[in-house]
Write a structure and sequence with these properties.
This protein is α+β, with helices and mostly antiparallel strands. It has 2 domains: about 250 residues, L-amino peptidase D-ALA esterase/amidase; about 130 residues, no CATH class. Helices cover about 40% and strands about 20% of the residues. The chain has a 6-stranded mixed β-sheet, covered by helices on one side. The chain has a 5-stranded mixed β-sheet with strand order 1-2-3-6-7, with helices on one face. α6 runs antiparallel to α7 and α9 packs antiparallel against α10.
Length: about 400
């Protein structure tokens, strides 16, 4: 099915499990494709293909013989394999995002699919394989086995670029992708850091290949870089909303911000409850969703997490850990109970419980802060006198 034509240079089509672009004029292409990747001229098509389902799939052919794999996915769609740059993913092609940014005669088109639920990672996370001439060797198992999840970007630019500028677009698009993940607070699945991408991200960028003036720069200070940044960031957010239901509002959760440190919904609920009396613990369990999604509480937890990151990155000295974390944890307690006049009392108590930077100690501090705030909130409600139509009630 023909979807659209952009700048009279490229037509976009979508099938059941494929999105492909047909060039109406010669284009220069740079890509991370395993078959015929790098900088190439002479391609007639570029495509993104749903090569497997999000779970219980097998990618062995694409790894073992990229050329055979390229032919396998191109031939059924009537596309000449040797004229195609290809990407594969488990993401649904119907969840693709199409974003266009224009300035004067310059047009940038981003076509993006993505999924990050199980494969989001941070640059520098532990690797799972080592490549050699004999193939891929599995390394001693890391904490988690890589799962499905890929952000695939096709970028079309209406004006010719020098080879250097075309290469630079990959850097700009990557920064935009990472910015989108940062703004969505996507956690790495392999470490306690925020994600910068997935373990299998791919990209194809193309621009007309003709004589005459060529843009020489794709940096963020130039208009081309700005358009790429806006288009890719918007498209990544849109496709993740479609594929994973991942939205800014959906990320308003204390559990999500703490998840990268090793907690689940159940362990977080039980961890907080373990610091409460039986009656209050039951009340917490019955109201857990409302508590962890309260915006004031989420803001306080997010601030606590960010301060913890500052220690991990070396910006804050370890010698100030208890003082700083006790104050930040007290803010969490105050956010839950609304009793900000008890800030100093909470700070003094929680500073003694701050432990160290280990993930388990950090989570326990968060749980204690939330439990302290919750207990004080219900203690206040229980002990307060309410007046209704002149009658005093306890």
């Amino acid at each position: 099915m023909h979807l659209n034509t952009y700048y009279n240079g490229v037509e976009i089509y979508r099938g059941d499990k494929i999105i492909y672009a047909k060039f109406l004029k010669p284009h220069l292409v740079i890509s991370t494709c395993r078959a015929a990747g790098g900088l190439r001229a002479g391609f007639e098509y570029v495509l993104n293909y749903q090569s497997c389902e999000p779970c219980n799939h097998n990618r062995r052919l694409s790894l073992r013989d990229p050329e055979a794999y390229r032919k396998m996915i191109c031939t059924p769609h009537g596309l000449p394999a040797d004229k195609c740059a290809t990407m594969g993913t488990a993401a649904n092609m119907h969840h693709a995002a199409f974003v266009v940014q224009k300035f004067r005669e310059l047009e940038v088109v981003a076509v993006v699919t993505g999924g990050v639920e199980t494969n989001a990672g941070r640059a520098g996370d532990p690797a799972s394989v080592m490549e050699s001439e004999d193939g891929f060797e599995k390394l001693p198992p890391a904490e988690k086995i890589p799962g499905p999840g890929t952000i695939n970007i096709m970028l079309f630019i209406s004006q010719p670029l020098t080879e250097a500028a075309l290469t630079g677009t990959i850097m700009m698009a990557t920064e935009a992708k990472t910015a989108a993940l940062q703004e969505l607070a996507v956690n790495s699945r392999y470490s306690d850091g925020l994600a910068t991408g997935t373990g299998t991200d791919q990209i194809i960028v193309s621009a007309p290949d003709r004589d005459g003036f060529r843009l020489t720069w794709a940096g963020k200070h130039g208009k081309l870089g700005e358009l790429i940044g806006i288009a890719v960031k918007e498209a990544v957010k849109e496709t993740l909303a479609k594929q994973n239901g991942l939205t800014p509002m959906g990320q308003c959760s204390a559990k999500i911000h703490l998840g990268r440190f090793g907690c689940s919904r159940a362990s977080m609920r039980d961890g907080i409850a373990s610091h409460l009396e039986v009656e209050h613990a039951e009340t917490l369990r019955n109201n857990f969703q409302g508590i962890i999604r309260d915006p004031v509480t989420v803001a306080a937890v997010a601030a606590l997490v960010h301060i913890r990151d500052k220690f991990s990155w070396g910006i804050l000295p370890d010698s100030c850990w208890q003082e700083i974390m006790g104050t930040a944890a007290a803010q969490v307690a105050c956010a839950i109970c609304g009793q900000y006049e008890q800030m100093e009392q909470f700070r003094h108590k929680l500073a003694k419980e701050a432990g160290n930077k280990e993930n388990n100690d950090f989570l326990n501090l968060c749980y204690q802060a939330m439990a302290l705030g919750f207990a004080n909130k219900w203690s206040l409600i229980t002990n307060k006198d309410y007046t209704d139509k002149g009658e005093e009630k306890t």
